[in-house]
């Protein structure tokens, strides 16, 4: 094949343009690219190797002036100087999720093959909206969607798309459910009459993105019905059945039931098989938010905890939680690929309808996003290097560790612990005795703030039945029971001192 030749531009660009072009990645700048990226990697590696605590405890008031003083209109001129500055405004005070005493949110240490994928995908900079911007990247993402759907068991018509995270996946799932519920409402008037009557049933322990999605979708302010949970903090299947009946008697239409496989606070898994049976009998869309619990899909020992998920109409998975991937790496899966038509629009300049007839795969036909990163590559390389069994084994480790932590807390008289998680959270609180008992809420809030200020550990907080509790979320296999015990002692020290000081102050006030 004859390769066409093109005239070479001979006009010398002005010096400023030459300097700017040198900062773009191209064939002539690859050595600078190698050096710059290597310098950045070295600096992060040194930090990771030497940090002795998950954070520094810096406050917004302390850090904001450093950032505000940066004059973005006066460039530093080279990447080394910019990295020096970055040490002061970011790296020095970053929160390090790989540290074993980071026990707060659903943030995981990341797999090295995924970091390799991150480096590759950002340099190539594929956009996953159309085939002519991504080529093989489109096929890799589609293969991973098929693999995930197979793991879930959704069947031969399943499909899906990568998203920015669980909240976006939940939004898109409820959008599809809304459109399916409105399928028989022909014309604007019929649709306008139906929309205020649509309802979504979810758990009182479910994710806030369900309520947020309902608002974004233009549903009624009271569209989301949060039903009670049982003693294990799982949604009550009986309550769901009763709500569906009640809604129909009231002339309301249940467009979706949202079950959760791994609630954020309690790590509880709703009775998915029961929910699937109820939804099938009632003709209601079942969405399962498995953003947290999706790691069970590769667990060698706990896959059965997701039994029933294969009957869902849509499923949210967050690989950046329990698959040890960097943010973002998430996906929405659907049982019937035909439902994805509700987010399909054809534009002549991007994805004209004729491309469907030509069998050209354009991922924008399935996505709420247009321009979209090739985040699937991180998971692809992780699976190709480590394999799913290794990832599942790591997730099993953190679940085992959480069980040990729950046992440790439950046997410690200084603390009160809530239900045992099926995944890797522990919800508990310091419980003062004697006259300081009424200070429990304030003491736990203080302990969390004092712990964060010290930088020695990071824990989360929540409310349970109106009271303030603390929460461990374990996603790091390097966290040991000794780490948990150390953090418990720190919490007890801070909370105990708070109670002591306030009781003493109260006694002094009364004596005076």
UniProtKB/TrEMBL annotation:
One of its GO terms (molecular function) is diaminobutyrate decarboxylase activity. Its cofactor is pyridoxal 5'-phosphate. The keyword Lyase applies. Its EC number is 4.1.1.86. InterPro entries: Aromatic_deC, PyrdxlP-dep_de-COase, PyrdxlP-dep_Trfase, PyrdxlP-dep_Trfase_major, PyrdxlP-dep_Trfase_small. It is an enzyme of class 4 (lyase). The keyword Lyase applies. Keywords: Decarboxylase, Lyase, Pyridoxal phosphate. Belongs to the group II decarboxylase family. PANTHER family: CYSTEINE SULFINIC ACID DECARBOXYLASE, GLUTAMATE DECARBOXYLASE-RELATED. This is L-2,4-diaminobutyrate decarboxylase. SUPFAM superfamilies: PLP-dependent transferases.
């Amino acid at each position: 094949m004859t390769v066409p030749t093109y005239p070479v531009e001979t006009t010398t660009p002005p010096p400023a343009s030459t300097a700017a072009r040198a900062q773009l990645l191209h064939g002539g700048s690859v050595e600078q690219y190698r050096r710059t990226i290597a310098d950045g990697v070295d600096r992060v590696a040194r930090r990771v190797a030497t940090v002795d605590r998950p954070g520094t405890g810096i406050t917004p008031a302390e850090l904001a002036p450093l950032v505000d003083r940066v004059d973005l209109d006066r460039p530093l001129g080279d990447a080394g100087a910019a990295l020096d500055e970055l040490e002061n405004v970011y790296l020095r005070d970053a929160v390090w999720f790989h540290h074993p005493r980071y026990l707060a949110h659903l943030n995981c240490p990341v797999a090295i093959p995924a970091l390799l994928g991150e480096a590759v995908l950002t340099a190539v900079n594929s956009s996953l909206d159309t085939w002519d911007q991504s080529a093989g990247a489109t096929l890799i993402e589609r293969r991973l969607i098929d693999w995930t759907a197979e793991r879930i068991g959704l069947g031969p018509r399943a499909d899906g798309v990568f998203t920015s995270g669980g909240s976006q996946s939940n939004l898109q799932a409820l959008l599809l459910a809304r459109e399916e519920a409105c399928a028989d409402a022909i014309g604007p008037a019929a649709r306008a009459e139906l929309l205020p009557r649509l309802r979504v049933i979810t758990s009182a322990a479910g994710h806030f993105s369900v309520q947020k999605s309902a608002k974004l979708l233009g549903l009624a302010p009271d569209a989301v019905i949060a039903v009670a949970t049982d003693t294990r903090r799982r949604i009550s299947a009986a309550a769901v059945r009763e709500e569906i009946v009640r809604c129909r008697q009231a002339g309301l239409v249940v467009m979706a039931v949202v079950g959760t496989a791994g609630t954020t606070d309690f790590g509880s898994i709703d009775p998915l098989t029961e929910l699937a049976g109820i939804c099938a009998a009632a003709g209601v869309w079942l969405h399962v938010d498995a953003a947290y619990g999706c790691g069970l899909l590769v667990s060698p020992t706990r896959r059965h905890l997701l039994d029933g998920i294969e009957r869902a109409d849509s499923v949210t998975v967050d690989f950046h939680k329990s698959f040890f991937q960097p943010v973002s790496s998430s996906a929405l899966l659907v049982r019937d690929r035909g439902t994805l038509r509700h987010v399909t629009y054809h534009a002549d300049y991007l994805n004209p309808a004729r491309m469907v007839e030509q069998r050209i795969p354009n991922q924008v036909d399935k996505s709420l996003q247009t321009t979209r990163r090739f985040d699937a590559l991180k998971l692809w390389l992780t699976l190709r290097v480590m394999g799913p069994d290794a990832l599942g084994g790591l997730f099993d480790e953190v679940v085992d560790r959480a069980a040990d932590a729950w046992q440790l807390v439950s046997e410690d008289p200084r603390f009160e612990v809530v239900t045992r998680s099926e995944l890797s959270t522990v919800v508990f609180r310091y419980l003062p005795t004697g006259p300081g008992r009424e200070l429990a809420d304030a003491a736990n809030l203080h302990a969390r703030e004092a712990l964060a200020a010290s930088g020695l550990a990071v824990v989360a907080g929540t409310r349970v039945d109106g009271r303030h509790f603390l929460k461990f979320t374990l996603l790091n296999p390097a966290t040991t029971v000794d780490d948990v015990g150390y953090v418990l002692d720190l919490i007890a020290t801070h909370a105990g001192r708070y109670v002591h000081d306030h009781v003493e102050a109260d006694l002094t006030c009364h004596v005076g």
